[in-house]
What does this fold into?
Amino acid sequence: MKLESLAHADPDHKTRREFLKTSGKAAVGAALVSAVTRPGYTAEDNTIRVALVGCGGRGTGAAANALATKSGPIKLVAMADLFEERLDRSYNALANDAHGTKGSAVISTFMHTPAKCRIFKGHTITRADMAWAFPQPEPNPYELEWAYLVEAIRQDKPCNEVKRGAEAALVVAMGRKAVHTGQSVLFEEMLNDTNEFAPDVDKLTMNSPAPVRLSGNGVYPDPQPGRLKDREY
It folds into this structure.
C-alpha cells in the first residue's frame, strides 16, 4: 500500500520537519490500521508490519533488508515520501524482489526490459551470493515478437504464439498459487489443477453475485500460506 504523496504540497507552508512529523503519523497510522482493524485468523498472527518514511536509496535499502529477515513473517504496509516520483521508484523496486524460505530473487530491474533477472543463494542480494543471472545483454521481448511475426510474413510461414502464451499464463498462475498457499507447485500439477479462481464464471450474468464476496466479519478472504494448502483462500 502506498500513502498519498505530498509532492504537490506548497513548499512555503511545509517544512521538512513538518513533513516528517505528518508523514510519520500517517505511516504509523496506516500500520496500526492494518494491524488492528483487520480481523485476525483463529491462529495467532505474528506478522510484523513496518512502514517506510523517506523512499530514497537508503530508505529503500533498509526496507529491503527488513523484508529479508528470516525470524518470522514481516510485511511492508505503508510508504511515504515528499516526492511522488521517488515514492513510485522505491515502490517498484521493492515490488520486483522476491524472498523465499531458502533464497531470494530479482524478478525485474527496469520495468519489463531489460529485466536482468537474478537468483541469490540467501536473502542478501549481493553479487557474492548470486547463484544465477540471465546472460546480458538480453534481447528486448517486444522487439522479438515483432521480428518473429515480420519474418514469418516475409517467409510465408505460420506464426502461432498461442502455446507459448498459454504456458506463460500457466506459469504466472503457478507462482501465484505457490505464494498464496506456501507450497511447491509443479507445472503438471498446475495444468491439472481443479481449483476454480472464479467458480461458474461461465454462468455469470449482470445480476449474479460476485464470485468472491465479503465474509461475515466484513472483509474479503485472504490467502493464508501454510494454513490453506490446497486453495488460495
Remarks:
- DSSP finds six helices and six strands in the chain.
- The radius of gyration is 22 Å.
